[in-house]
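## retry 2 of 3
previous attempt timed out at serialization; input unchanged, resubmitting
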Amino acid sequence: MHELGLTQNLIEIAEAHARREGASAITSLTLKIGSLSGVFPDAIEFAFDVCSKGTLAQGAALNILHIPALGRCQQCATETPMESLADGCSRCGSFALEILQGQEMALTEMEID
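## retry succeeded, writing output
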């Protein structure tokens, strides 16, 4: 489960930023996780509860924004929703899609005390 390692790194990064700001606690973290990122939000939530114990993030709210995948066809320029990397264009059927969003995992917001 690579989500455990990702969550540990997330908490380390958040703690470093919080300490630089003189914070005594992290009250909330907001993540964006794309549907094609290969990251399971439920596993991140579980790992966060375990990994945050004894850190500035213990007891913090974890908000996860689910980002749907979107691609642009390189043949007809149509933007099309994607469920997997093997999806084709909804207009012309081409498989030459440029992924515009959906592969990200990013810490976008943090609240501290």
